[in-house]
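User: Fold this; tokens only.

Assistant: Input:
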Amino acid sequence: MRYFIRLCYNGSRYHGWQRQPNDVSVQQTLEEALQTLLRVETPVTGAGRTDAGVHAEMMVAHFDTPAAIQPDDLVQRLNALLPQDIAVQQIWQVADEAHARFDAQSRRYEYRITFQKAPFLQGMVTLMHGTLDFELMNQAAAQLLRYTDFTSFSKLHTQTHTNICHIKHAAWMRKGDTWIFSIEADRFLRNMVRAIVGTLLEVGRHKIDIEQFCKVIEQKDRQAAGTSVPAEGLYLVDIKY
């Protein structure tokens, strides 16, 4: 029987979502907790992967069990067993062929920056210095919807077979002292959001203009884009099915 599980996590002390041979990951931590409670090895398949230090307000995964379970009871037992930085929000039964990754229609990320030193947000938001042109960064972000090949924003030497992504939304918004870049697409490349934000910041600092930003995309060359911003400000916030 197949179940979907929705969870959130603070990724600060994890080497990303995906299980790693020599580092602690969110996937490994969840699988070990499920195995302890269900008394059987329980692989988990996530809707995607987040890199080391990246957070998730919403991650969806699926797992299989040989017998029916009580979802609400398992939620409580998992939360009692898991560390404080991982929380299971819901578990529900789905069709045997349902797939957390392949059935996802889109994913939305947010990147959060602040210009005020915030001790209680350390590791959860990226501190910026100087001034940024908010309106110009938004104009540049809108250009992303014109393109589908984002090789310039992809980590090099990955196993991805295509760098084609369809972006549905990309914009900056203000929320108090925090500036948030929101982007939604059918799929994302490794390091893509952090590289996009790093390049948009160059627009905001008037180091490049919008035409040059478009040329960065068109060159399909990672070296043409800006430096990737730190992982701490990045959040996976929504997955649509």
